[in-house]
Amino acid sequence: DIYNNVDELPRNLTFDFIVIGGGTAGNVVANRLTENPSFSVLVLEAGPSPEGQLNHTVPFFSIFLREQSPLDWNYTTVPQVGLDGSALQYPRGRILGGCSSMNRLAYVRGSSEDYDRYANVTGDNGWSWNEIQPYIRKNERWTSPTDNHNTSGQFNPAVHGFHGINSVSLAGFPSPTVQDRVIQVTEELSDEFPFNLDYNSGFQLGVGWAQSTIKHGKRSSSFTSYLGPEFVGRQNLHILLNAQVTRLLQTNSDPTEFLTVEFAENKDAPRQRVTATKEVIISTGSVGTPTLLLNSGIGDPNQLSRFGIKTLINIPDVGKNLSNQPMLTLSYFVNSTNTFDDIIRNLTLRSELIRQWIETDGDGPLGIGPYGTHQVFTRLSKNSTALETNPDPAAGPNTAHIQSGIQNGDISPPPEGHFMTISLSLNTPTSRGSIQLNTTDAFDQPLIDLGLLTTDFDVLALKEGIGIAQRFVGARAWDGYVLGPLSNITASSTDAELEAFIRANTSPNGHIVSTASMSPKGAQHGVVDPDLRVKGIARLRVVDASILPFVPSANTQFAVYMVGERGADLIKAAW
Ligand SMILES: Cc1cc2nc3c(=O)[nH]c(=O)nc-3n(C[C@H](O)[C@H](O)[C@H](O)COP(=O)(O)OP(=O)(O)OC[C@H]3O[C@@H](n4cnc5c(N)ncnc54)[C@H](O)[C@@H]3O)c2cc1C
């Protein structure tokens, strides 16, 4: 059952497992644990349900989910020294499904080397690409695109799952002018931009057709899939909404047991308590997880003592090593009106398309994600200054440094003109940031320092990324279509101009990881062991994006679903 407030939660229930955070990973864990009818599970989620929220259902409207909203945590970062001191808005879903209910839907796994590196740095081969294959299949349900077009030559069925839970599909509303020209680029500039039938095969380099977590023109999230109608009625699954966990409490006198969870509906509401009999699983995401651990006295004594919090478990790395990918969007004027710019600018057109989307149950241009039709994965060139002067941070020689989404429009278009946009992400950043407490009130925001562009490598790599984008749009394939850049970046820009442009225009991806990182069992660094148990605490695990020691060369939802699936298996095996 789903309960909206604590008064609805039956008092006579006991719970084997408490999952804190009904987000991307949390709902996977809740679903998989309740497959066993003898396990009872309580999920505590700070936010409400996305049921009936159009912006959270219509894929194209994900572009509007960066705005402040009661369904968002509405974070603001600390001033970013690498971005000329700007403090940035940093959206995260405060809603059932978490960020999977509000992200941009791109389904990108990364390279096999990303996962083999997780195995190497944790000493647990279970995180390697080969070993996670069953979890890919359990998660993924490959789905036809909305328009049912012939998809042969657009993906490789051999590397996909067809019987999992979360839908993945190709874009169902084609934009042929752009698509055809992208394919021409792969032929014309095949050395740098070769066609890749499926960038989710483990070998990601090249240009491939975009895959998204969309089911028949609607968002597929951990809420719509793992808590779908066939699961949510399970007698042993209980989900309490509007319940923000404020801290974990030691159970009885055993200092290594934190089975009691304190929560409240809002800052002023009375604190409630509930105790698990087997385990507590923290799935509150890369910002929420370190915040909750620190508020519970689990962290760096130096930091905790500043707030008068007694250190119960000394784990210095809680909230440290934060990694996030910086992103730049480059827009180009195009000689066409067949772009999505007008959907954003013209309310009459938008209303007409909403009507079409409702009447056809998901058809039309609103049923695709804004990332459009193709993704491009590129390594920095062999004579790259960034690589000559720094160690290569990629997980291996087949892992992309730069990911470029080719969009048939600008998501914040100026009042006039039509555009093609390249959203350029540095997938292998070396800058690291942190999450720290700001006050002792769990309802106050923590200090979020994304550390963006604080290393030379990251700035040099983005400069070279701009070069990659310029070469892509410079192909003859775009003759007569791309008219020129919207920004003042041109082939003749100086290094100093490029750097100033980058620092003024970079924004963070939502792909924050590593704030409760995995490390080998017994290691002094890191926060959780490879079986996701918090170091030194027997019955407390973290299962979410925060445990990934490096960001994969990808958007992160796939990796998080995989962590949820494997995490649930590890818990089931233990009990
Ligand atoms: C704007 C945006 C766009 C993105 N686009 C993409 C994309 O296109 N493709 C992609 O692959 N990835 C994308 N991502 C990243 C991806 O969605 C996330 O990496 C992933 O969903 C994180 O999953 P999680 O389980 O770690 O955390 P979340 O999904 O954030 O789940 C955490 C849950 O815990 C709840 N919670 C937090 N604190 C508490 C507390 N104290 N008590 C109770 N509940 C709490 C939250 O409300 C939330 O529901 C995007 C992210 C954002 C923000």
TrEMBL record:
It comes from the Eukaryota. InterPro entries: FAD/NAD-bd_sf, GMC_OxRdtase, GMC_OxRdtase_N, GMC_OxRtase_C. Keywords: FAD, Flavoprotein, Signal. SUPFAM superfamilies: FAD-linked reductases, C-terminal domain (SSF54373), FAD/NAD(P)-binding domain (SSF51905). Gene3D superfamilies: FAD/NAD(P)-binding domain (3.50.50.60), Glucose Oxidase, domain 3 (3.30.560.10). This is Aryl-alcohol-oxidase from pleurotus Eryingii. GO terms for molecular function: flavin adenine dinucleotide binding; oxidoreductase activity, acting on CH-OH group of donors. FAD binds at V245. Residues 285-299 form the Glucose-methanol-choline oxidoreductase N-terminal domain. Its cofactor is FAD. PANTHER family: CHOLINE DEHYDROGENASE, MITOCHONDRIAL, GLUCOSE-METHANOL-CHOLINE GMC OXIDOREDUCTASE. Pfam families: GMC_oxred_C, GMC_oxred_N. Belongs to the GMC oxidoreductase family.
